[in-house]
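Quick one: structure for this chain?
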Amino acid sequence: MARRGADALASRQKLEVLGGFIGFFTVLALVNAVGLIATGRPSIFASIVLVLMLVASWRTYRAWRRVDRAVTLR
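Got it. Here's what it folds into:
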């Protein structure tokens, strides 16, 4: 169900903003998890948050690519 025109462009822009936020917090989760492991205090909670953020990043990227194709096909 590809959208066309201005609707697809608006969706792409919203996904770009969402991707920026999710990407930023994914980097923070990565730094936190690596920092905890490096100091000898590994945390399962930090690892789970990191995995969830990576999944959210991947899903946002895939959605953005799908909408981006609809925008570039017009």
